[in-house]
Amino acid sequence: MRKICKSVGLFLSALLLSGCGSATTPEIIMPEEPLQPSVTSQESENLDNSQENITAKPAEDSSQPAASQTSLSNSYTVYLITMDLADSYWQSIDEGCQSAVSEFGNITYKWIGPDSHDDALQSACVDQAVSDGADAILIAANSPEGVNASLKAASDAGCKIVYVDSAASFDCVSALATDNEAAGATAAESMKEALGAKGITSGTIGVMGVTTDTASCMSREIGFRSAFEGTDFVLADTVYMQDDVANVKNAVSLGLDNGYVGFFGTNEGTSVAIGETVKEAGAESTIVGFDTSDAMLSLVSEGIVYATMQQNPKIMGHDGLSIAIGALEGTYTETNTKTDTGVTVITQDAM
Predict the structure, then answer these.
(1) Residues 302, 239: one domain?
(2) Gap between the Cα atoms of 58 and 71, Å rounded
(3) What share of the chain in percent tops pLDDT 70?
(4) Lowest CB count within 10 Å: 136, 215, 259, 338, which one?
(5) Is 185 in contact with 264 (CB distance < 8 Å)?
(6) Bridge partners of residue 288, in order along the sequence
């Protein structure tokens, strides 16, 4: 039986507040009879072929993702709430969630998010999920503190909280994300390697971020800057996109005019904007960024972008939803656990 997570105030706020959008196909309602689950894989390529896997054995301990269960004792409603609905990165997390849903069955799954990176709008999405009777919420928090009040209300209503990609400071079942500071340092080492191959040992590097509240990207910036300490390179002040790609493109154009030797983008949106600006200018620069949308991979294959850090969003979604269900079923009993889902450096030579 699905628990009731409603209050009149939350219900009215969900009706009145705007900006909480949904994906093109936001709802998946599985049949009442559970489907047989598939083997849980830690390799992202196997997620795309999960239906070809053999039936798994039940989990032997609570630390294992719940996808290895043979059936569910109840039906559940699970929400995925991301920072927005535009980036292909969030779509990949959604795909991972859908993969887990297809393994479990008996789950009503919805993906929603605000129209822009905004704490109040994302909080409204959390409130909407609670008013709709969500049993668990997977969320990529827009900022460390900005959605905590709504998350507390969700937790008080009995919802299980799992963070994917970006965590808030409120307690959770588990947080699945890239170790962003380490990933930023890896990006810096890739840039050093590329610049060194060109014989460049000094110069200014442009840094492009999302917002000062986007914790994951801020951590990448910290790791990137730390790796350049003690070198002869100068890292310019960060320019933040603030949901306006023109901010990045203008800054890159100015950087090219001032002879910047390279540019670093902390996420897919900033990285693509950097690459497109350099390409449109017919210039050459050393660019390192994040994520693997079609646009980003195209820029890498053309040699416009030197390297991009490939995260594992499908695994975040798949295993995050699995852990949430395990917590609801009582087979996953830990709290505030952390999982580093890692990065892979993608270059033109590696494609």
Answers:
(1) yes
(2) 9
(3) 81
(4) 259
(5) no
(6) 264, 307
